[in-house]
Amino acid sequence: MNKDYYKPYEGRDIKILDQHAANTIAEDHLTFPYQLLDHLAHVLMLKEQGIISQEDAAQILGAVLKLRREGPDIVPHKPGLTDLYSNVEEWVIAQVGIQVGGKMHTGRSRNDMNPAIERMYIRRKLLEQMEAITFLMETLLVQAEVHKNTIIPAYTHHSQQAQPITLGHFYMSAFENFGRDMERLMRAYEHVDLSPMGAAAVATTGFPISRERVAELLDFPAITQNSLDGVSDRDFLLDYLSAASLCMMHLSRFCEELILWNSSEFHFVEMDDAFSTGSSIMPQKKNPDVTELIRGKTGRVYGDLNTLLVMMKGIPLAYNKDMQEDKEPFFDARDTLLKSLPVFTAMLRTMTFREDVMEKGAAGGFTNATDCADYLTKKGVPFRDAHRVVGELVNYCIKADAALMDLSLEELKSFHPAFEQDVFEAISLKTCVEGRCIPGGPAPSAVQSSIDEARVQLKL
Q1: Of residues 263, 279, 414, 445, which has the active-site annotation?
Q2: Taking the CA atoms of the chain, what radius of gyration do you get in angstroms?
Q3: What is the pLDDT of residues 203-224, one digit of tens each?
Q4: 157 included as an active-site residue
C-alpha cells in the first residue's frame, strides 16, 4: 500500500475527525425553536432566583426573542464553534455585551441542555406520529366494517390455505397491531417527558437554581432525579426507536400481504394507480411500489435502532463524545415512519378488492376441513378419529380433483357413517365463518363487536 496516501492527514486527522463528529449545526437547526425555549426558561429562572438582575435578564431575553422572530439564519457560524448553541451564545453576547450576555449560561451545561432540547423536540414528533397512527386505525375500522362479510382465506406457513375468515377480521388484526404501537409510543412519551435541566455537566451546580421552575416553564411535569443519569440517559431515544421499529414491522408485514395479494397468482386486490407504477419494458406490469418501499425502509429503521444501541452499550456514565451521534438515527427513523404512515393510510383507502376471487380462493385448499372434522366431533366421533377421517377424505378429493363440497353424501358415508345431509350446510364457507362468533373470532357479529369496542377506545 502506498504510504504517501496518508500524508495529507498526518498531524491533523484527529482534529478532522473531531470536527466532523462535533459539527451538529445542520441538525441543531431542526431543534432551534426548542433551544430558544430553553434559553428563555433558564434566563427567566435565573432572574426569579436572584442569580442575575432583572435588567440583565431583560436584555438577554430581548435578544433571544429577536432570534425567535427572525430565525437562526441571522446567526453567523464562527470557525471552531461546531454547534448552533455556541454560535447563538456568541451572537447574544455580540448584541448585549459580554458583561450581560456572558451570564445566560450560568448554572447550565450543554450536557443538560442538549437532552432537554431533544426531549422537547421528540415530544412534539411523538404527538405527530400518534396522530398519524390514529388516522390509520380509524381507516382500518372503516374498512373492517365495510368488509365484515367478505370471505377470504386465512393462511399459515406463508401461503398454505388454512381456514376461511373475513377481510374485516384481517383488518381488525392490523388494528390490534397498531393499537400496541400506539401504546408503546405513549409509554415513550411518558419516558421522554422529564426535564434534565439543572443536572448541568454531571453534578448539578452550586448556584441556587430551581430545576422545578425550568421544568414548569418548559411544560415538563417532572425532573430527572439523578444528575448523572440526567445527562447520560438516552433511553428515551431508544424507547422511540424501538417503538418505531415495531410499527414499521407491522407496516411491512401488512405490505407483504398486499404484495402477495396483488400478484397474478392471487389477484385479490387492485392497487390505485397513485400507489403503483408500470415497468420500463413490460407493458402489462403494475407494480405495488409503495408497499415495497415501506417494506424496504423498515430495515432502515432497524438500522437506526441498532446504531444507537451499539453506540450506547460501551459508554460509561456520564456524558461522552460518542453521544453526539444520537441525533441522526432518531431524525432518520422519525422521517421514515412519519412519511410511511400517511402514505400507507391513503393507499388503504383507495384499494379495491376482487371479492369473488377472494371467496373462490377460500373455497379451494380445503379451508373447511377443520369444520368437517368438527362436524363429526359434534356427532359424537372423537376429534382425533374425526381428524383422521377428514384427512383421508382430503386425500381422496385430491386424487379426484374435487372439493369436500363436491362429494355426494354416499361418498362421505363411505368414510364414516356419522355423515348426514346437514354436513353440506355445516361445511359451507358462510357457516364456517359465522360459526366462529366467540370473542376474537372472524364471524361478522364478532368483528362488529370488536369494531364497536375499538370505536369506544378511540372515542369516535
Answers
A1: 279
A2: 31
A3: 999 999 999 999 999 999 999 9
A4: yes
Catalytic residue among 157, 264, 280, 408: 157
Annotated catalytic, 195?
no
C-alpha cell belonging to residue 255: 405490505
Give the C-alpha distances (Å, rounded to integers) separating 426 from 19, 161, 328, 342, 379: 74, 19, 58, 42, 12
Please tell me the distance from the alpha carbon of residue 145 to that of residue 358, in angstroms, as a whole number: 17
Q: How many CA within 13 A on the CB side of residue 117?
A: 25
Mean pLDDT of the chain: 90
Q: Of 283, 284, 288, give the one whose Cα is nearest residue 271.
A: 288
- Helices and strands counted in the chain (H then E): 20, 4
Q: How far apart are CA 305 and CA 182, in angstroms?
A: 18
Contact predicate 270/354, CB 8 Å? yes
pTM here is 0.88
Q: How far is it, in rounded angstroms, from Cα 291 to Cα 276?
A: 9
Question: At residue 373, what is the residue type?
Answer: A
Q: Is 144 helix (H, G, I), strand (E, B) or coil?
A: helix
For β-strands 352-353 and 269-270, DSSP reports them as: antiparallel
Q: What is the pLDDT of residue 3?
A: 53
Q: Which grid coordinates are listed for 357?
A: 376471487
State the amino acid at position 364 in one-letter form: G
